[in-house]
Design a protein that fits this description.
Length: 212
Amino acid sequence: MEREINAPAPAPALTDRLSAILLLLRQTLGAQARTLRLAPSLQWAVWNRLLFLARRFCALVAHPPKPRPNRTRAPKPTPTPPAPKSELSRRKGWLLRLLPGYQAAGARSQLAHLLTDPHMISLLRENPSLGRVLRPLCHMLLIAPPDYLKLPQKPRKPRPPHQGPLRPRRPKPAGKPPLTLLEHLLQKYPPPQRPMLPGHRYTPAPPFKNSA
């Protein structure tokens, strides 16, 4: 009996492909750290973020989140001003700028090809939470996200017509200076409190000691 060609690919095969892409990026980071003279703290933060995304994708595939029931939302508290972001992390393709060369470009090409795989598309439609991992990867590797990865735009509420004389606008308070890439990564993806196992020869040594 011949095997069907269009049989759906198992989810572990897709997770292995994405894990291999992120492993290639971590290997490139470890191999080019001395050549590019990256600070050990920055190298550790970027390494930890790539490892976090790989583990997060595998966890979401193994245990998809259950849909939440519609509940009455409590009134929102007073909004706090958003924390400043890094100027480098705002730019699309910041990881390609940080790691020039064919290795990072090859990982970018593999990820772009993986996003066109019909099995990956069907998996993302069944589990939309996987977009939380793939959208940041598209941003850092300068990949235009496909339509099925884009978030739906929220409709804007129409403003009521203004009545009465116009009031002068208050001057905006001076905002906080933007964070560096290291501060942004450490704030969003704090380093683990235990050693990462299994070890890898490209794994950077943590530039700080845990307080114990």
